[in-house]
Structures are given as structure tokens and as C-alpha cells.
Amino acid sequence: MPPTRSKPEKPPDQSKVADAARVKATIREVAHRAGVSTATVSRALNRPEKVRAETRERVLQAVRETHFVFDGIAASMISRRSRTIGLIIPTITNSIYAASTQSIQHTAQAAGYTVLLGVSEFSPRLEADLAQRLLERRVDGLILTGGNHDQSLIEKMRTNGVPFLITWKLMRGKDWPSVSFDNYKAAWSAVEFLVSLGHRRLGLVCGRTDVNDRALDRRQAFEDCLERHGLAVDPVLIYERDFEMEEGASAMSAMLDTPEPPTAVFCANDIQAIGALSQCRERGLSVPGDISIIGFDDLPVTSYTRPKLTTVRVPAHDMGRRAAEIMIASIERQIPLQSVELQTELIARETTAPPRFRR
Amino acid sequence: MPPTRSKPEKPPDQSKVADAARVKATIREVAHRAGVSTATVSRALNRPEKVRAETRERVLQAVRETHFVFDGIAASMISRRSRTIGLIIPTITNSIYAASTQSIQHTAQAAGYTVLLGVSEFSPRLEADLAQRLLERRVDGLILTGGNHDQSLIEKMRTNGVPFLITWKLMRGKDWPSVSFDNYKAAWSAVEFLVSLGHRRLGLVCGRTDVNDRALDRRQAFEDCLERHGLAVDPVLIYERDFEMEEGASAMSAMLDTPEPPTAVFCANDIQAIGALSQCRERGLSVPGDISIIGFDDLPVTSYTRPKLTTVRVPAHDMGRRAAEIMIASIERQIPLQSVELQTELIARETTAPPRFRR
DNA sequence: CTGAAAGCGCTAACAC
DNA sequence: GTGTTAGCGCTTTCAG
Question: Fewest Cβ atoms nearer than 10 Å: which of A49, B75, B100, B158?
Fold first, then answer.
């Protein structure tokens, strides 16, 4: 047994706590080992400059010896801050949300924050559960996707003083802060582009507008833009589908089987666009010769399809970074959450061209 | 003002706390409102069956009125459990890790756990920081990617009693539990397949083996398999690159510019394979006529490339689910972490064929 | 079935 | 500079 100070106020049953600890250490063990008070340990860890260098070194030494891991949970109880932000997205798999998520996590990490992740799978019910749990973990702020949320969730965030931010959807009317591009405007630009190429009969593939208000904005833009140009909005050319390539393929297939197929199709996300494109090639159709396709998101893979996909570039990384920055600034410096509108950009690649036959 | 019990032991400056709370409620307010003790509120929330139905209803009513959100942080202090698991992956963007992550989050959520996410960007330094922070948040368990970890991290997890699990890499030799397929075996099967097709000059594109032990296993299998078949391992046909399509393209480009290009290339992940494939087509080479390509992962998009990519299917979803289940079982029922080996499957699609000229 | 009281590991005054 | 003390919001004996 090592020659330790023999004042067993609390007889520790540590058989050989030489310098490799066997059990979780608390700030008390560290203090004892360093021969200081717990307050000093706390200071040495959080405000090193308020402690004499030599003392600090002794404390740090004791921390190392015991493999002490600071208990952020206990600290949070007092500081009323968890240094944690919650993030809820509908899906990560195979999607553009992964990009914003990675940026949020990166930015948070750099600022000393940890991200609690929730995946709602496009289910409002699941989202509410997820959010409740994040709130119970006392996240300092919550970053949500889109503007469809349980009313009681909003109330809880309000009364519990948890700031929240909407991403992927601009909340112009409401007083909710959002960091996003304008889905309507972006989709409009895509449709406008097809029309300007001379297309008169257009199809749409998009997500399910009942659970996805981004898809709703995009669909609305599609319909409005056609009307604006005096073109027909034919329900037989509008498909709301799940977020899968296969769904894009089958939607395209259905359109092509229509008596009067479209000469151009707007797919409101690249995942579905890739499926749609593949379906056309499967049938031996030339893209863009026989039919034009435009996607939405600019996933990295869209530069690698054959032909390369024309799409709308969405500032996913920027959005994630800005959202995290704004959230953290609000948490740390009480700066009210500000809304930011980001821009999108049409990336004309190879799947779009004028229709073969003008009417 | 509602006719409440008038015994202001602690004069609450609530001007009109009718049923919409203005500030965060604690269990005390709820107790007061329901006319019970804090202990009863706690019981009503955690062990409803130990409280009379009528009392419980009163408590729940008070919870609703105050928008009370349970403080999981305070609860964790006592229970020594956070109902939280940490997950560290190298990247989410545009990758197969998104799939396992989604499954882990899904499974955790269903079991009442929250996931704390860290993205290490293939940096051991960043990973150590991330892990430290997760430990400080007192995660009940940690799911890591691969087997390269800071020694002091391992010690901290050990002495702090935080169970950890390795994914994406089988830890046969070491005593670390892992839930994964065997990278070596899986890569071997891919290379073996090319050899069995008649290829004698093979190239490799893989991740950076210095920061990615999965890539190392796969490279090792490539080299061993060639040797086993008495084939040359030509360093000029081996490329370690970052995890980007562009990198796969440039690696392929370099190989093709070689005096004696390969007739088949094993890309140790689909991302690089897509780039490589694209590069071949860019140069007007026929795949698999002029050159065969096999990928690894079976990303959804590999069924949508032209031609469709032959690859090795990896059980990402299963791995995530099993890892989360095993971790949670260990946390809740003290079951020791068990290792599981999952299987992969070669998916022969359209980018592989016998070489045009046998030697 | 319910209440009173102690205390989880840490920090924030306030002393010394 | 450093120590002492009093809790943060909750759970958990132990009484009643």
C-alpha cells in the first residue's frame, strides 16, 4: 500500500490507488490528492488564470493520475447551461441533410458545444418525442428542420426559454427565426429555366407535401410558375413520393406512360432526380434530347451521373455553419436569434436542353 | 387570479400564472400546484403505478399547465445514468456512415436514449477531443468507428466505467468488443472476384491507411490476395486518397496514364469508385469492356450509375442497430458487451467482366 | 400511498 | 490565492 496521508475521514477501499485509478474520481479526490480544496480544483479547470501556476500544475497532475473526467452534468446544474445543442433532421441517409448536419456539428464542436441528434423520419409525432427528450436533456438551443411543428413543442420551448431556429425553410410570415434559402424562389428558378428553354409540358416529382413543407413550397412554385406562363398544370404529371431514388424512377415511369408525356421534369430533390434520370435511360430515351430533367440540392454525385445533372445548388454547408453560429451567439451573448436568407444557384449541366419539337 | 391555496412560504412573483406559465417550472411548482410533495411528483412521473390514480391525474394536469419539462440533467446526477449514448464517426456527408448512424439513432430513440454525435473528420486529435467532451457529458456508453484510438481515451473510458463498442472494424486480436463485418475478408472477396474473372493486372484505390484502419485492412487484403495468386503488387497501381469522388477520378486518371494500365481496379469505397468510373467514361473507355471496376459499400446510388456498379454490400443498417442494441443491453442489464461479426455480400452488377485480352 | 430530508458533483459568493 | 458554505432540481430512503 502506498504511503498516503493517513487520515481516513472516509475510509476509501482503494487497494492500490497508486497513480492508476480504479474507479471514477470526483473533484474531491482530485482536490485531496493535490492538497487543495474543491473550489481550487474547479478554478484550476475553468479559470486557470485565477490560480497560482504551481497549484494549477499540482491539480492537473492529480487529474491525470486519477483519469478524472469533469462532470459536465453536475456543472450544468449550477450554470443552467449544458453547452449542448439539439438538432432534428428528417433523415441523414443518402441526403443533403447530412451536409448541413456535418457543418453544424463542426461549428458546434469548435465552439465547445456538443450536438444531440434526432432523426424524425418525416414524422411529426416522432419529432415531437425527439424534441421533448432533447428539452429534457436541457439543450441550450434547438435547431429544427422546416416549419411544421407541434404547437405544444413551441410552447414548451418558449416557456422554458430554449431558443430555436428553423433551417431549410424561410419563415417570412411567422416570427420564428430561420436560416435558410427560399425554397419557393429556388424552385421557381428551376421551373423558369425549363420554360425559358421552350418547354411547355412539364412534370413534377417532389416529396410528400403533407409532411414536408419544403416540398410544398417547391410544388407551389412549380404550379405558380406554370400558371404565370399560361401553361397547364396537369395533375397527371405531378407526383409526390418518398425520398428514394426508386420513387423517382417509378414516378418518371408513370409520367412516360401517360398519353402525353412531359418534355421536361422538375425533380424537387436530386435523389428522386437520379432515379428519374435512370428510368429514362433504362427506356432508351435520350436525356436531354427526348426529355429534360432538372434536380434540386446539388449533391456531390450529380456531377458524376451520365449525363451530368442540371440542378439547383443549395447552400447546405453554409446554412449549417450560420445556423450553429447564430444559435451559439444567441446562447452565449444573449443576442436575439437573427434570420438569414441564403442564396441558391442554378447549375446548368447536361440534362437540360430545348425540347425537340416546339409546338 | 385563480383561487389557489394561499400559503406563500416563498412569495412567488408570478403575476398571472393562470395556466400559461411564464417561466420554467420546476418539480416544486408542479408539486405546489397539485397540492402534493415533490417526491410524489417524481413518483407520478417515473413510477406512475406507485401513485393513486387521482393524485397522478392532478400532477399531470399541473405538468401540462406549467409546461413543465422534466430536468433529465438533475435526474442524471442522482441516477448516475444519462440515458445518452455517444457516437463518433469520421464523416456523415455523402457516405455509408450516415446509414449506420441513422440506425443507431433510431434504435436508441426507441429505447429512450439520446444520441450525442461527434464527427472526427478522420482526425485522431479531433476524435480524442470529441470523446473527452462526450465523456464529460456522462454518456452511458460510447460507439466508436475503427480501432485507432488515443490510449488515454481508452484509459479514461475504463476507469470511468463507460462501456465502448467498436464498429466498422472487427477487433479479433484485442479484447475490445466490436460489431462489424470483416474488412479484410470482404475486400479479399472483391479482389478474388476480379482475379477469378481472369484479371492479372489490378489497381487499388483506397482511403488513407494512416488514419483509417478499415482502409488498411482492405489494402492488406488486396495485396495478400494478389500475392496468393502469384500476381504482382505494383506500387504504381496503388492509390491512397481522401474520401471524395474527385479523388477516385484523379487516382484512376493516374493509373490510366501509366505505361501498363490495369485491366481491373478495386476501389475500397463506392465514393471513390464512382469517381473512378466517371473518369473512365470521360476518356471514352468502355466499362467493363476495357476495364473492370468494383466498389465497396453498396451505397444506394450504385444501382443508378451507368453501368451499374459491382460492389460489396456492407450491413450498415444492421451494424448500427445491433451496436445500439448491444450497447443499451449492456448499460441496462449489465450484460457484458458482446462482439458480433456480420457478413458482407458481393453484388455483381455491370462494371465487371473478364479482361478483353488474356495474357 | 405520501411527505420530509439528505445529498448527487460541482460552482459561486463570501471569508480569510 | 485559496477555503468554506450553501445550494442547483431531482430521487430516495425512511417515517407516518
Answer: A49
